[in-house]
Amino acid sequence: MKEKYLRLIVMLQEEHNYLKGKEIAKRLGISDRSVRNYVKDLNENYLIDSKILTNKNKGYILTGAVEDIKISEHFEFEERMFFIVKFLLDAQDWITYEEIAESLYFSNQTIRLDVIKIQKMIEEQYQNLKIESVIFKGVRLTGSEIEKRLLLESLSKITTLNKNKFIESLSYHFKDWLEKESVEESVQFFQKKLSNLYIPNNPETTISIMSYLIISLRRIGQRHYCDYGFDTADLIKIESTKEFEVAKSIMYDYGNQARIIIPDVEIIYFSFYLISQRLMFSVSADDSLNVPEELKEGVMKALQLLDQMYHSNSSEDEQLFSGLTMHLARDMYPLLFNFYIENSFITTIKKEYIQGYYMAVSFAKGLKKTLHLHLPENEIGYIAIHFASFIERSKTKNAKIAILTSRHQSVGYLLKKELERRYTNALISTPMCDNANFNEESLSDYDLIISIGPIGLEQQNIVVVNGIPTEEDYRVIDNIMKKISNVFVAKTDYFTRKKYSNKEKLLKGLLLGIGASEMLESILDREEFSTTDISDGIAIPHPLLTSSLETTKIAVAIQEKPLDWGSQFVDLIIMIVPGKNDQKMTSQIMEEIYQIIKDPELLEKAKTANSLEEFNRIIEKRR
């Protein structure tokens, strides 16, 4: 099944409502006409127990449960890719294109082109794998044993749309390795073990672990073992985790069942796999995890580099340091051996924690320098949560609010709690004066005064609440707080609607517009760590380094035809280039942009702007 078909179905499953064709087209990077064709093909040739309904005004909605899909005899490239790699993995030495083509009922030319695509994917994602090709011999997969297994396991997920019929899916993918009855027995055996383990018993978890186990047991049975790439001290750290305990239990029992001796190294690698999949919800054993001194030193050096860049005190925050070291102590070994880190919340994290993610990427760069440890995008997402928490703890109280309660003390108490929740930057108090007896001079230090009941004082910063606060009261308070907390600084310096054919040309154009062309390499380095597209067709590119500009600059591009930015297509690009010694301003700009992208109506209006002045006017009037 085409990857975009799967993305379309998942999109409709998550929406639970009608989705406009234009929105689907934008997210998938296709035309409205292609959306109609995709829906028609899915309904006619793939979906069995479900259907995509079309409404001319509302768009598309998925009805029924996606219990199964029709498997065509002529499967798509994604499915061929799995079986080609499976053939390569199973071959003792060279295997010819003809042998693969005959087994899959495709031409030699098709298989040759597929192998070229697979090799390109391997070069991008796997450090120690290679497909060798020699005339008159054929092709073979060489390199790290664990990466071979992880490659095949990852490809088994691509074509698995239905998680509920996982036995059929496993039988289909591994049909020449195991009979269906053996698959059923293995799954039943696994599910019995789950009752005593700390793993969630659901179809998605079962199919992931079973794929890994089937592949590993096949390779172990053929005497292909994982490399022993760590010293004995590392084993103590891994053995202290809950994942190791579970891996040992499962592997030993499966080995006994299959009459295969399981080497200790296989238990360790299975532990890495369980850690990378984020399957263990009971982490009580982590308190005893021995954090390597090398990791502590590397994290501290990376934080110190961050402090130099952001003029912050992150290296002095014990909670941040402890959280990062404990988190990375568990993940560093899966990362070192190129395990894929699962993170289903990455899109939400990039959107909701812009500043935290911004700092996490810079931290990841520092960690690569200090520890030679590369953090992929999903792992950076988890790191971003630690930095988002640090940012919240570091916020200064820059607004003072007085609540005059009089006899309505209970209402005042509830109002105080609600305002503390809404405005983390506010210092809220109930001074010893009320609306019946107040000292005007004593209230002069407050930025906002809220009186529960009438008060004989005329000032711009007074809000009178009659009884229980209403939504209108909160809107008035919110408007005043925005004016107090922010002098709006996110003004655009350069704006364009020029059409660009690709991402790099657009970045060059924006940098030229603000006079910072020398920052292109740093911005491209940032994109390599993790693409800066966040959601809703928005990207916020920025460099890893500060520029030589005196002040922070903002450049905006709006594209009629969305550009492929990496993980999605985008049509609104907001570039931020920090000025030297201007990091405080950059953080405020990030916060303001976050407020902008949370407002879908404002975004749509902003995308209609045709000039720099018009764009700034729309954004400034957002309140």
Automatic annotation (TrEMBL):
Alphabetized UniProt keyword annotations: Repeat, Transcription, Transcription regulation
SUPFAM superfamilies documented for this protein: Phoshotransferase/anion transport protein (SSF55804), PTS-regulatory domain, PRD (SSF63520), Winged helix' DNA-binding domain (SSF46785)
Transmembrane regions listed in the UniProt entry: none
InterPro entries reported in the protein's UniProt record: BglG_antiterminators (IPR050661), BRO_N_domain (IPR003497), HTH_11 (IPR013196), PRD (IPR011608), PRD_sf (IPR036634), PTrfase/Anion_transptr (IPR016152), PTS_EIIA_type-2_dom (IPR002178), WH-like_DNA-bd_sf (IPR036388)
PTS EIIA type-2 domain residues: 482-622
Keyword Nucleotide-binding (UniProt): no
Highest taxon of source: Bacteria
Domain PRD: 174-284, 290-397
Residues in Bro-N domain copies: 68-191
Protein name: Lichenan operon transcriptional antiterminator
Natural source organism: Candidatus Enterococcus ferrettii
